Give the backbone structure.
Amino acid sequence: MNFSDFATEIYPFLEIQPFHSVYYRVLEAFARGDIRRLIITMPPQHGKSVGATTLLPAYMLGLNPELRIAIASYSGSLASRFNRRVQRILESREYAELFPETTIKRGAKPANYIRTADEVEIIGHDGALLSVGREGSLTGNRVDCFILDDLYKDAMEANSPIIRENCWEWYTSVVRTRMHNFSRELIVFTRWHEEDLIGTITSKEPCRELRSFKDLEEVGENEWLYLNFEALKASPATEIDPRNLGEALWEERHSAALLQQKRNLDTMRFECMYQGHPSSREGLLYGNGFSEYDTLPRDIVRYGNYTDTADTGDDYLCSICYAVDTDGIIYICDVVYSREPMEVTECEVAEMLCRNRTRTAAIESNNGGRGFARAVQRMAPSTKVEWFHQSGNKEARILSNSATALHLLRFPRCWQQRWHELFAHLTTYRRTFHSNRWHDAADVITGIIERETRTAFRSKISFVK
């Protein structure tokens, strides 16, 4: 029996969504030993623990009652709760029909077998299920399989360098020392911080992102396999997760509209918990440091636009209309931030230029930008469209202009609700350049700063002359 059929047999009330089918298929590969080291991250309330920490241990003990499995969590009481749930499955009538060889103590008999909230032994076999809290001990116990579920209680714990260090020390001194050549590890979390246990492990050991089912066969013996389910699809479609961009993982339970509301409340927390893309606030280039405005001032002297077309299919076209006042303060007025094809974004950008009565627009000619500029010029004849080649080093430009961007730029009030992806990519943009997935938004605001500071400098020179 495969794991998905086992799950619905034991819990007939389960609502199996397409991503659950993928999740259970990967867990089955782990249960059968095809994968030795597996990391899965998933948003809250999507069935993570039901699959990995409740049903999976029972399934594995059914396949092999000689296994010694340990469940670990941030507290001993939570780990014990998982253990008791598994025990209830092991003594159920449905389980006995599926795996009659795997039984546990009932009442006081057999007297020579252990059954507590933290440990239960399989009768007639060497197998057992153990549970332990983070920083707890497993002295003297051999462990064939570790399941680590939520080793941090909340954001406060995950953001504490002391607790993160204690968690790492416990992992290396307890978990790793109880394992042998054939032991398996499964880590299932909601991410909280880029330097949590998952972040530390993947920075130190080889890791393969799970994109296709072929990866299940090709993963190396000592290589981690990493599967991340985003609440709102933001990465390119794969065989594992073929959703369209912006599509919710479980629309019937957690709709895209509801998730967007949560994103608007705290973009960084949403990227951590719901998207699996954590970043620490102390490592951010901009953070929430951009100033906001309610209405444009009266002393606007110039309206402009800066556009960077998408480099690849995964990149965003970013086009920003802005206004500049007599003091050189730059007010962001309108934005097109999209991964739609050029035939769509050409119209959107042209309409935005007309809507904002933009006099001049600068479009980078790299990567097809010249053809894009010509198309936009035809559709927005009242705007003077200029194209140019951007030859400067992107990393150096973005980093060196970041302080000026924070000083000069003003975004409209509640801009995170109008342009939520732009907001997310700017406010979570990290100082370590290569840690960022998308550079498009940062690149364009950098281009605006460079262009307007040069204009201001030329104006001063002309005035002196």
Notes: The chain has two domains: 3-266, 291-464. The chain has a mean pLDDT of 91.
